[in-house]
């Protein structure tokens, strides 16, 4: 009896000791996890604060690289480099370094060497250091968004840090296969650095639009040359000799229309352009009875087919199904007065425009939409008639 009582007391004592040790272990683990979470939160906050620049400082590449070097000097063992890279990627557009290859190389150089390389295929199959690989993938995806093609030096950095059997190197191989193909796919290539001046950007855009006709002449006008103009701005106009010939064939039965604005995107920037357009031209259809076998010619016996008497001219590139384009332009303000000045400049080389009625068919700009009352058909017709009389 005494032995069984002693055993029960010993068993209960052991259970209490195990429960106490387990509770201390779980409490210590929870404390460590909370401390790690707080430390991580503080680390991310510090990384964000490192990119908080005062208003009097210029956000450029020099300041961005200075922050990267400052992080290297303060962290010789690269502690918190993942958080720093992720925060830095969010500020590349703000510092205007999103299209600079050297900046991405500097961020990629923050990864430690030899530590992240898988030692065997098993480690590679189970994604060795997954968070580091995800961070490196973010760098490559950011480069892909800004159309930056990695070079040979970037390839050596990936092999040195992560090795060939990782998702980072596989994404690099896919980028090197597809991006050179897509970068050379367009026959109308844009320069790597677009001009900042709005007039030069509009000149580049009109050249891109009118590139289908090599005979197009691009002219730049200044509205201040016209004494009756109210909007003193620049006008970039494009017109070819073929379009002038098509204008001479207009009878004036249907009014010409100035339509727009239309948006042309060139990389991250856009311009608004307008077109002078007329009614579509109906070409006579050549009717050929393909099922008629009553008058077949046999070339084997020297018989020749008689030429057809139905003759028609092929339509030019300016004669589209929805209308005939006579000219296009881009102005500094995209206002109605600037378009009226453009029409007066066109009358210098196209005197026929002085007798052709022209109406404005303008859309509200997408950036500043306002609510207006739609006029009825009679009021709209009167307004168009008044605009046509003023243009004449």
UniProtKB/TrEMBL annotation:
Q: Which domain of life is it from?
A: Eukaryota
> Which Pfam family name is an example for this entry?
ECSIT_N
Q: Which intervals hold domain ECSIT C-terminal?
A: 240-363
Query: Is DNA damage there in the keyword field?
Result: no
**InterPro entries, per this entry?**
ECIST_C, ECSIT, ECSIT_N
Q: What is its main location?
A: cytoplasm
Q: What is this protein called?
A: Evolutionarily conserved signaling intermediate in Toll pathway, mitochondrial
BP-aspect Gene Ontology terms: cell surface receptor protein serine/threonine kinase signaling pathway; innate immune response
- Keyword terms, alphabetized: Cytoplasm, Immunity, Innate immunity, Mitochondrion, Nucleus, Transit peptide
An annotated GO cellular component of this protein is: nucleus
Protein family per UniProt: Belongs to the ECSIT family.
Q: Which PANTHER family match?
A: ECSIT EVOLUTIONARILY CONSERVED SIGNALING INTERMEDIATE IN TOLL PATHWAYS, EVOLUTIONARILY CONSERVED SIGNALING INTERMEDIATE IN TOLL PATHWAY, MITOCHONDRIAL
The record's subcellular location field reads: Cytoplasm; Mitochondrion; Nucleus
Q: Which gene encodes it?
A: LOC100899765
